[in-house]
């Protein structure tokens, strides 16, 4: 079954709302994905994570409602999956302040919603991060702190994913100047075998159903199993029907070969 | 004396570089000349009436069209190789010798400096959007740089009323000629550069709510900021179907060799610049119609019974424009991620490829697998082929459109025997 993007696009604004109450109640079965603050947290291709999740959900016959939440709107508390993208220092700090004041994301996490954040979005889920040389308070939804590294990490990123998640090798592209130090309440997403990630040793973090990574942009396009894990978390399903992943697998094999790793 | 020597050396070094097979020599020639005479560009521009063209996309083509239009009046110096920084400008003017007119394509970052050095009297501003090396925030900063660079200058600005960032850059200036040149790419101008408020477009779904799947909408939709007075200026030059309407209401059919609405818009901008110099659209249009290819773009090349046309798309906005330019025919998409392209292919998810649905789509290039995943998610069926030769063999006799990013374009262009 091929998802019909046009109809998803048309359906989108119906759920979009300035307040926390949807204008039109949606069917209970629809999976709600909220892209948080694309006006502040969006660099290259961050929309891709939303598109990949919606595509893979649609392949399983799951209806999807997607919404972009601008930073001057309240964050809806009733979404199933929240996505946060990358961004420059100034917008990152502003996004953290607005999200803290809004409180919607923290409420959603408290009731068990799934969060997937990349790069700057990942950092601001921690306790603190540095932007424009200043230490900034984060949301504290992940037990970690970020500071500045000696150099910018730009290039392919790969690593073996934490065994508890049951996923194949992580592959992505990183472009960040931060270094992230994990506290006792989070677990690393992966052990780094190429690139830098958090600190050259481990990469990303997860705690409950909140997961962050330095693999920026459309990270899920290279990691379909991670996309499916997020969908499982959000829907409560133990597993999803297999789909034809010929092209993502070829892409993974190519990118992992580029850093001298074998796909498995 | 120094200028004469510097200009001669510029031409000589550029020629030597060309003979040595090191590109077209524009940059190295200009650099050496400017070492001898630091004010060489100013001296070479002196005595010419100059126009500049800048923007993220379309500046090479619009420069070419503008030079063609001014050709009605006499010889025109121009940097037709796309060498669009001061060294390239210097070489272009040195090579041209004495000409009464000059039209230069200018890299966005150099607009202020080149205005200073050339004393240009008209500047055409086409559009601003993200490129492989500039993020969206930096695009807004570029609009501010332009605004600062234009302030207080006794020049005429020809500006695209459909691009909020261009409008912001030009709006405060006393002499602006607005062109409804269109904008397909919305994603770098949802936020007002003036006040940070939301920009609403008349045609966006849900009365201005951002579209989820990326890309743009009607190219000349009305727009306004919800937080301040910034809004679409009423353009003096507009495009209706295959015609351009001038400020007097005169309607001119624009018949171009170059494809797409985007190029009719580039033609409208060229006509507006030419009008400032006293060239009427009626006189200019036959000259525009003669432009068949620009630096290897657009030209049709016959290959094994297929008419192959090569289009360049360097950034997400450029891809949307290429979809508009390409005919409804089998289409080869070629994507690399080498140095000049940027090593990161994330931008593929900023482009909505759905306009290609219904066409036969072939893909190739170093990063064809990234493109394959993107197209799958986008619901666009495709076939992966090893390269140009296989693509030509795969499609039936007739047209083959090719859209490629920078190094993929250069590779295919070389394979097509350096069409010019
Ligand atoms: Zn405004």
Description of the molecule:
The complex is a heterodimer of chains A (264) and B (420). By secondary structure, chain A is an alpha/beta fold. Chain A has a single domain, classed as Class I glutamine amidotransferase (GATase) domain (Rossmann fold, 3-Layer(aba) Sandwich), CATH 3.40.50.880. Chain A is built from eight helices and twelve strands. In chain A, the strands form three sheets. A six-stranded mixed β-sheet of chain A has the order 2-1-3-4-12-11, with helices on both faces. In chain A, strands 8-7-9-10 form a four-stranded antiparallel β-sheet. Chain B is built from 15 helices and 17 strands. In chain B, strand 12 and strand 13 form a beta hairpin. In chain B, the strands form four sheets. Chain B has a six-stranded parallel β-sheet with strand order 2-3-1-4-5-6, sandwiched between helices. A six-stranded mixed β-sheet of chain B has the order 12-13-17-14-15-16, sandwiched between helices. Chain B is an alpha/beta fold and 420 residues long. Chain B has helices at residues 2-19, 26-36, 40-45, 59-70, 86-96, 111-118, 136-150, 164-170, 205-208, 260-276, 281-289, 316-325, 368-378, 388-394, 406-415, and strands at residues 49-54, 76-78, 101-106, 122-125, 156-160, 176-179, 199-201, 223-225, 238-240, 243-245, 251-253, 300-303, 306-312, 331-334, 361-364, 383-384, 398-404. Chain B folds into two domains: 42-289, UDP-N-acetylmuramoyl-L-alanine:D-glutamate ligase (3-Layer(aba) Sandwich); 300-417, Alpha-Beta Complex (Protein-Tyrosine Phosphatase, Chain A), CATH 3.90.190. The two termini of chain B are 36 Å apart. Mean pLDDT of chain B is 90; it is low at 205-215. The chains are: A alpha/beta (264), B alpha/beta (420). Bound molecules: zinc ion (ZN).
